[in-house]
Amino acid sequence: MAWTLAPVLVALALGYLLGSIPFGLVLTRAAGLGDIRAIGSGNIGATNVLRTGNKKLAAAVLVLDALKGFAPVMIAAIYGPFAAVAAALGAVLGHLFPVWLGFKGGKGVATTIGVMWGLSWPVGAITCAAWLIVAVLFRYSSLAALLGIVAGAASAWYFDIRPVALGITALVPLVWIRHHQNIGRLLSGTEPKIGQRS
């Protein structure tokens, strides 16, 4: 048991450590924009960074948050699919609950998309396509994220990719719970649209 469990635990720890790097906070401070947690929604993700008006910085945060999910999955995949899924879960948990920020992190969308690409590129592509379609049609980043990851999980089951489908499905409630305030605002019609300062 120990020799099979060890790579999974190491992958989980690796994913958490990489996932917990708060790129949104680091880059906005480096750019002289102060603490991103005092701007807009207070979130450390790319959508809130966009509210600073710096599109290039927001794009950089988006890419880096996705890469910190993608990289540990690809590294852990060397030791098999269970290790890869553990790294994926660790990366998203790290972004949601980073030890460096008192376990108060982001909402995990970009990192979740990154791990999806790492676990299965078709699932990652479908997730991004669903996000883009919803974002273009409705201009709500939160709605696009919520529906995009559901589409990704559904596609993983459709392609019968196990244990990837189980791992991705486990991420869905995590991301949805972190979006509970967004869901409330969507239902009340007060959710800011993409590019709109809250």
Radius of gyration: 16 Å
Q: How many strand segments?
A: 0
Uncertain residue ranges: none
Strand content: under 5%
Overall number of domains: 1
- The number of distinct helices, counting runs of at least 4 residues, comes to 10
Straight-line N-to-C gap: 51 Å
Rounded mean pLDDT is: 92
Describe the main β-sheet briefly: none
The sequence of SSEs as H and E is: HHHHHHHHHH
Quaternary class: single chain
Q: What is the overall silhouette?
A: globular
Helix content estimate: over 70%
Structural class: mainly alpha
Q: Any overview of this molecule?
A:
Helix content is 71%, strand content 0%. It has one domain (2-188). Helix 4 (55-76) runs antiparallel to helix 5, helix 5 packs antiparallel against helix 6 (109-119) and helix 5 (81-96) packs parallel to helix 9 (164-178). The chain contains 10 helices and no strands. With 198 residues, the chain is an all-alpha fold. The mean pLDDT is 92. The longest helix is centred in the first third of the chain and has 22 residues, at 55-76.
Mind sketching the topology for me?
Elements: H1 2-19, H2 23-30, H3 46-50, H4 55-76, H5 81-96, H6 109-119, H7 121-138, H8 141-158, H9 164-178, H10 180-188
Distinctive features:
single chain; 198 residues
Brief summary of the model shown:
With 198 residues, the chain is mostly helical. It has helices at residues 2-19, 23-30, 46-50, 55-76, 81-96, 109-119, 121-138, 141-158, 164-178, 180-188.
